[in-house]
Recover the amino acids of this structure.
C-alpha cells in the first residue's frame, strides 16, 4: 500500500499539469519574451515587456506624468487590456476591456450598515447634549489660594506704581563737608564745597 502512494501522487500531478496547460496554455519560453528599458538624467524613462500571454508598457515624461498599458490572457482565453495614467490627480484607469460590475451589498451587510449609522447618529446626539450642559472645572483649594495670593500681590504692585508716578519729590541742594587745600607757594588755604543733589525715585515696598 505504501508503495502505491508515490505512484498515485505522480499521476495526480500529471493530471493537474495537463489541466493547467489546457486552460491557460503552456508558459512562454524565454526566447518569446522581449523587454526594453531606457532612462535619462531628467527622470524620464520607458520600459516594457511583451510575451504571447501578457505584456506591459510604461513611460514617464519630464513633467512627471506617467502613461502605461498592460494586457493579459484570462482563463477564458480572452485578452484583457488596461490603459492607465498617473499624475498630480493620482492613478486613474483611462480605458479597460474588463467587464466589471460594482459590488452589491448582501442583506447582512446592509443590516449592519444601518445599525452602524443609527449608533453613530445616537452617539453624536449624546455628545452634543453633553457639550451644552458642560460646566467649567472647579479650582482645588491649593489653586484657589495661589490665585488669591497672586491677585493681592498684583494689586499691591499696581498701587505702588501709581503712587510712584503721581508723587514728585523736591530736589534739595546740599553742600558737602568743606575741603581745605593749602598752597605752599602763596601760603594760602582754600576752602572748597561740592554741591550734592538729593533725589529719591523710589518708594519702600510694604
Amino acid at each position: 500500500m505504501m508503495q502505491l502512494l508515490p505512484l498515485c501522487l505522480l499521476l495526480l500531478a500529471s493530471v493537474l499539469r495537463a489541466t493547467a496547460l489546457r486552460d491557460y496554455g503552456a508558459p512562454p519560453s524565454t526566447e518569446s519574451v522581449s523587454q526594453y528599458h531606457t532612462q535619462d538624467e531628467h527622470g524620464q524613462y520607458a520600459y516594457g515587456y511583451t510575451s504571447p500571454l501578457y505584456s506591459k508598457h510604461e513611460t514617464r515624461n519630464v513633467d512627471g506624468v506617467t502613461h502605461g498599458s498592460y494586457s493579459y490572457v484570462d482563463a477564458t482565453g480572452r485578452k484583457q487590456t488596461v490603459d492607465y495614467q498617473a499624475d498630480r490627480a493620482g492613478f486613474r484607469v483611462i480605458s479597460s476591456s474588463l467587464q466589471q460590475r460594482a459590488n452589491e451589498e448582501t442583506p447582512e451587510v446592509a443590516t449592519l450598515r444601518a445599525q452602524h449609522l443609527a449608533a453613530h447618529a445616537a452617539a453624536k446626539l449624546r455628545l452634543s447634549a453633553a457639550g451644552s450642559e458642560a460646566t467649567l472645572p472647579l479650582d482645588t483649594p491649593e489653586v484657589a489660594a495661589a490665585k488669591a495670593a497672586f491677585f493681592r500681590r498684583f494689586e499691591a504692585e499696581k498701587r505702588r506704581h501709581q503712587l510712584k508716578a503721581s508723587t514728585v519729590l523736591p530736589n534739595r541742594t546740599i553742600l558737602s563737608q568743606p575741603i581745605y587745600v593749602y598752597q605752599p607757594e602763596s601760603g594760602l588755604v582754600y576752602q572748597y564745597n561740592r554741591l550734592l543733589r538729593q533725589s529719591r525715585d523710589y518708594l519702600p515696598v510694604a
Summary: Strands lie at 34-39, 45-50, 54-60, 66-73, 79-87, 90-96, 172-175, 179-183, 188-192, 195-198. The two ends are 111 Å apart (CA to CA).
